[in-house]
Amino acid sequence: MFYTYVLQSKTTGKIYIGYTGNLKRRLQSHNQELPTKKGSYTKINKGPWEIVYKEEFQTKKEAIRREKQLKTAKGRKFIKSRL
């Protein structure tokens, strides 16, 4: 199973869109409970981060396709309508 997800920072309100095969582990990584890149978007833009939207897919390809859709202006408008 793969997921496309949207995180929102509880402190800044910023959003982050991504995909993963392990949603729990990925959220821990974004919240620095697991090692992460020093210059990553979620490390620079302080959390804590929470999942505000997610979709489940059978394949990685589908999850990546949806991630790209959500990162467009139309996709971000869709996300903001859900928040």
List keywords for this structure.
83 residues; alpha+beta; GIY-YIG endonuclease; three-stranded antiparallel beta sheet
Short description:
The protein is an alpha+beta fold and 83 residues long.
Percentage of residues in helical conformation: 25-40%
Distance separating the two termini: 25 Å
Q: Structural class, please?
A: alpha+beta
Can you count the helices? 4
Strand order of the largest sheet: 2-1-3
Roughly how many Å is the radius of gyration?
12 Å
- What is the string of SSEs from the N terminus onward? EEHHEHH
Globular, elongated, flat, extended or rod-shaped: what is the shape?
A: globular
What is the total tally of β strands? 3
Second-tier CATH architecture: 3-Layer(aba) Sandwich
The proportion of strand residues reads 25-35%
| Sheet of most strands | 3 strands, antiparallel
Spans where pLDDT lies below 50 across 5 or more residues? none
Mean pLDDT: 89
CATH fold label = GIY-YIG endonuclease
